Amino acid sequence: MAPKRKALLGGAATSKAARSSKGSTPGPGTPRSMISDSSDVSENEGDIEIPDEMRKSMVKFDTSSDEHKYSIGRGINDMASRHFDSSRDFTALKPKLDAHNRPLWIQGNFVIVLESFHQLAPQAQDFLVTVAEPVSRPQFLHEYKLTTHSLYAAVSVGLNPKDIISTLERFSKTPVPSNVKGFISACGKSYGKVKLVLRNTKYLLETTDPEVLQMLLKDPTISECRVHGAEQITTSAPKMSGLAIAGTKEAAGIREAEGLNNADQEATQANPTKKEVYDALNDDDDEDDQEVVHAFQIRDDAVETVTKRCQEMQYPALEEYDFRNDNINANLEIDLQPSTQIRPYQEKSLSKMFGNGRAKSGIIVLPCGAGKTLVGITAACTIKKGVIVLATSNMSVIQWRNEFIKWSNINPDDVAIFSSDHKETFSGNTGVIVTTYSMVTATQKRSHESSKMMDFLRKREWGLMLLDEVHVVPANMFRKVIGNIKAHSKLGLTATLLREDDKIEDLNFLIGPKLYEANWMELSQQGHIARVQCAEVWCPMPTEFYDEYLKAATRSRSLLYVMNPLKMQACQYLITYHESRGDKIIVFSDDVYALEFYARKLMKPYLYGGTSNAERQEILQRFRDSSECNTIFLSKIGDTSLDLPEATCLIQISAQYGSRRQEAQRLGRILRAKRRNDEGFNAFFYSLVSKDTQEMLFSSKRQAFLVDQGYAFKVITTLHNIEKTPNLCFATAQERRELLLGLLDDMEKNKSQAEYERENNALMADGNLFNSKKPGARAKAKPRTMVRRGAHLLADLSGGQDMAYVEQNKPARGKKKVAHSDFFKKQQRDKERRKKLVDE
DNA sequence: AAATTCGCAA
DNA sequence: TATATTGCGAATTT
C-alpha cells in the first residue's frame, strides 16, 4: 500500500509534505493530541508517506498547532464562530468517568471552559476568577485563560501551585494537561520570591532566597538601577492574624466567636477544596516567621524599569505593605461610619487585597455604579495611613472628597484637595490628599504654590495610593505619577480594564496584578446594578444618502451615516416611546454637529464641551428634577464624570470608531439607576446604526466587551408603528432631500476650508499653486466636488470668504452656521499665524 | 475674571 | 488602518 501511494504522489509532493509538517507537528513536551500517533509515524522519513490533503486536515485539527491557537483578537466579527474553531475540539481529551459531575474543561493552550449552568459552577467560578483571566462570560459557557499574570495574582493572594493544580483537577472533566501543570508550578516557584518594599522613603528590592538575590544582582538592567553601598540584611517577622477589614467588623466578630477567620468561614460555606487552599495559605505565613531577608536599594526613578525587568525574568516583584507594623508613618484617624455595611462583592475584592494581613498593590475591576469609591475608602480605613487619591478630572476630585466625608468619620479638614484652585494641606501630620493625574505629572512650568505642594507630596511616604479610572495610567504622561510619588501600596480602580492600544499590559508592573474582577451579570442579578436590555437598531439609509455615502471620503461618510434621516426618525420614535413610559433618556453623540442638529430638531436640551459651566448645571438640574425635561443630548462629555442616576434609557446615535471602553462606560451611565430595585425594572440601551455602513462593523467591535460580560444585544430591524409617531421628522422625500443638500454643502465647506489651507501652505512654500495638488488625493474626489471646490476657492481668494456662498445655497440654515463659526475662526487664526511665520 | 493657547488623551 | 476631532486642565494673556 505504502509504496504504491508514494509512486502515485511523486517525489515533489512527498518532500513538500514532509517540510510542511515541521512547523505544526507537536514537539516533545506538547500535549498529545488526537493526531500525534500519525505524526510520529511521519517523522520516520520514508516509512509511510502521507498525502498532502490528509496532512492539511491533520494540521487543521491539530489542537497544539500554533497556527490554530485560539486567541480573542480585536477583530472578532461574530461571537459564534469561535465556538467551532478547530482548537476547541475536545475529542483529544479523555473525559473522566464522572465527567458530568465536574463543571470545566482544561485545554493544553491554557484555556479553561466552564459550564456556567453546572451545579458546581459557582464554586468553580470563585476559584477561576482567582487563578485565571476571565476572557468571556456569556450565558452558558464561560471562558477563562491561565496566564502568567493571573497566576501571579493567585500566588500573591496566597494560593500555592500544588493546590491550584489539585483544585483544577477536582473540577475538570478531563485530566489537567501536563504542560498546564508544568506552567502552574513553574509560576509558583518563582512568584512571590521578590518583593518591592518602601522603607524610609527608599525603595528596596527584597528576597528571602540568596540565589534569587544573586540572580537579581547579576542582571545588568537591575544592577544598573541599584544604589550602591546600601546592601543590607534584615530579619522580618510578618505575622498573619485575623485582620478585620473595615466595614465587615460585625461579621468578623461573629466569625471570631466561632473560632474561624474570614477565609475559613467563606471556605466552609463554599466547598472543602477551597478550605484546603486557604489552610495552605496560613501555613505559609507561619513559616515566614524567622526568615532572613536580603535587600538592596534601587533608585526612585528606576522603579518602573526594575519591576518590568523582574516581570520579564518571571520573578515579578510583589508590592506588599505591612502597615500594621509600620511605626514610622503616622496613623490616620479614620474609620467607616458605624452604619456602613459593605456589599459581599466589595468585601471579596478587599479580601484579595488584604489576603495575608498586608496590603497588596493591584487593581480591582468593578462596573460603574457598583461602589468603587467605597472600596477605595474602605481600603483607606483598613490601612489607616496617609492616603493620596488620584482622579481624572476636577469634578471627580470633589466627588471623592465628599464621599470620604460621607462614608468615613474622618475630620473633613484632613481631606485636602490639590487642584488648580484649591491648594490646601491637611491640618494634622497626616491625612488624605485628593488630586488629579495632571496636577501631579507637571510637565509645564508650575506656579509657585503648586511646586511647593508637589515637593510636599514627593517627600512624603504615603500609605496608600488610590488610582481612580486606572486604565488611563498607561498613557505616557500619566505613568510618571508612579515614580513621582512614593506609596507603600497602590490600589487601582476601574470599570473597564480596556484600551484599544496594548498598553493595558503595562499596568501589571506599574501598579500590580488584577486582584478582582466582578461579573456584571451576577451583580445585576443581585440587584446591585440595574438590569439592562441592549439593542442594536438597524436603520436603513435612503438610497440618495447611500449613494453619497459610497462616493464620499471617510470623514464625510461618518457624517452621512450619523445624519441618516431614518436614524433620526428611529431616535425620535424611541424618545417618544420611552418618555411615555416615564423613562429618563440620555442620547449620546460623539459628533457635535449631529448632536446639535438632532437636539434642535427634536427640541431637547443638549450639552457638549462648549456649553458653559452655569448652563451645564442648569440643564442637568432640570433633567434631574423636572418632569418636563426627560431627555438630554450629550457629547463625549457625558462619558466620564457625569453622575445621572435618574437616567434609565440610553440611546447612542454616534460613537467613536470601535472603542469598547466607551461603550462600556456609556452603558455604565444607566447601571446606577435609582429605580433599579423596582419590581421588574429594566434599563434600556440602544445603539442606532445605519445599515450596510461602517457603523455596523464599529458597532460589533464596540459590543465585544459587553458581550463578554454576558450582555445579549438584540437586533431590531423594524420599529413598530414608527409612522404613527407624532410630528415624525423627515417624513417626506422633499425634507430628506433638503437635509441631504444641506449636509453636502456643509461637508463641502469643511473640506474646502481644509484644502484651502493645504493649498495656501503649499503656495506659500514654493509659490506654485498648481504643483501643490497631490495627484493621489485628487483622484478620489468626485467630479461634483471638484467643480464646487473650484468655485469656492475663488470666492475665498477674492476675500469674500464663505458668506455669499452660504446665503446663496442655504438660506434657511442660520442655526448651523453657529456650530461652525468657531471652527472658521480658528481656521482663520491658524492661517494668519502661519502666514506670519512664513513672512518672518 | 474671562478668553485664549498649549499639551495631552482617546 | 491612521487620522481627525473632541474634551480637559494649566498657564498665560487681555
UniProtKB/TrEMBL annotation:
GO cellular component term, pick one: transcription preinitiation complex
Residues in Helicase C-terminal domain copies: 569-723
Enzyme class: isomerase
Region of interest (Disordered), ranges: 1-49, 807-840
UniProt xrefs under InterPro entries: ATP-dep_DNA_Helicase, ERCC3_RAD25_C, Helicase/UvrB_N, Helicase_ATP-bd, Helicase_C-like, P-loop_NTPase, XPB/Ssl2, XPB/Ssl2_N
Domain Helicase ATP-binding, chain residue ranges per copy: 353-515
Superkingdom to which the source organism belongs: Eukaryota
Catalytic activity: ATP + H2O = ADP + phosphate + H(+); Couples ATP hydrolysis with the unwinding of duplex DNA by translocating in the 3'-5' direction
Principal location: nucleus
CDD domains: DEXHc_XPB (cd18029), SF2_C_XPB (cd18789)
Acidic residues bias spans: 40-49
Composition skew (Basic and acidic residues), residue ranges: 819-840
A single BP term in Gene Ontology: nucleotide-excision repair
PROSITE patterns in the cross-refs: HELICASE_ATP_BIND_1, HELICASE_CTER
EC number(s) reported in the record: 5.6.2.4
NCBIfam families in the record: rad25
Annotated protein name in UniProt: DNA 3'-5' helicase
Species of provenance: Coniella lustricola
